[in-house]
Design goal:
Elements: E1 2-6, H1 9-25, E2 30-32, H2 39-50, E3 61-63, E4 65-67, H3 78-85, E5 97-98, H4 107-121, E6 125-128, E7 150-153, H5 156-162, E8 176-179, H6 182-185, E9 190-195, H7 201-209, E10 227-232, H8 242-251
Parallel strand pairs: 1-10, 2-3, 2-6, 3-5, 6-9, 9-10
Antiparallel strand pairs: 4-8, 7-8
Helix pairs in contact: 1-2
Bound molecules: 2-amino-2-deoxy-6-O-phosphono-alpha-D-glucopyranose (GLP).
């Protein structure tokens, strides 16, 4: 895992966008994530689009996850969130942004269809945030490390964490989501994870330095050959070998 520690969220976004840009320039398929963590990355990608460095006209994108039951145009759907925060600000074609069909009366069927679509297309680089309990996408602890796209019941902590998008009303947060499985996510050729803030420090420590365990779903990244983790100082604050990672960054071939 290549670990990059930067001063703050702005710098994390710049770094992550720089890692993604070559794939976008080559017209490759990208994986997008919701949450506050990737926002500075999206801002930087938008800036690169505005300055003429990047175009998304022919790019396909797959979203990591979606709430069960929320239509694409619901203001809290992840499709809409990604649209409002990123894809509508660049020349992305809506039809090229794929997400699990959250209104399918049979979410298990929708999950299987989405898995197949990702297998058929392939993802060159997947952007990830991380939950405070180490979850990625909506793969809660005990998720199968090689599992496919699935329907996931959300842990009360995850519901609490995400209530801020639903006027802090816990009852309004959907209880289930569809998410790319850990097997789906790790089939992407490259993975870039971003994390900022003290609240993520424990999860980052467990992902990088803890054992490989389904209790910390993000630890599955230890099995992947092309992972870049970009964190700010606060999220890096519990890394025991931070000096080693800083040295490795200095001497790594780019
Ligand atoms: C949700 C999303 C994850 C995201 C996590 C953390 O659970 N499904 O993909 O990583 O939130 O969000 P944030 O970056 O806002 O802390």
């Amino acid at each position: 895992m290549d670990i990059i520690i930067r001063a703050d969220a702005q710098e994390v976004g710049k770094e992550a966008a720089a890692v993604m840009a070559p794939f976008i320039k080559q017209g490759r398929t990208i994986g997008l994530a919701t949450g506050s963590s990737p926002l500075t990355t999206y801002r930087e990608l938008i800036r690169m689009y505005e300055s003429g460095e990047l175009t998304f006209k022919t790019i396909q994108a797959f979203l990591l996850d979606e709430y069960v039951g929320l239509a694409r145009d619901d203001k809290n759907s992840y499709f809409r969130t990604i649209r409002d925060e990123f894809t509508a600000h660049v020349d992305f074609v809506d039809a090229n942004v794929h997400s699990p069909d959250s209104t399918d009366p049979d979410p298990y069927h929708a999950a299987a269809l989405y898995e197949q679509k990702i297998i058929d297309t392939g993802v060159a680089i997947q952007l990830l945030g991380v939950g405070v309990n180490g979850h990625i996408g909506f793969n809660e602890p005990t998720s199968a490390l090689q599992g496919p796209t699935k329907v996931q019941a959300l842990h009360p902590q995850t519901i609490k964490d995400n209530a801020r998008f639903f006027n802090d009303c816990l009852e309004d947060v959907p209880t289930h989501a569809m998410t790319q499985g850990l097997g789906t996510i790790t089939r992407a050729e490259n993975i870039i994870m971003v994390a900022t803030g003290e609240a993520k420090a424990d999860a980052i420590h467990r992902i990088v330095e803890g054992p490989l365990t389904a209790l910390c779903p993000g630890s599955v990244l230890q099995l992947h050959a092309n992972v870049t983790l970009v964190v700010d100082e606060a999220a890096a604050s519990r890394l025991e070998h931070a000096d080693y990672y800083r040295t490795m960054e200095q001497i790594r071939l780019r």
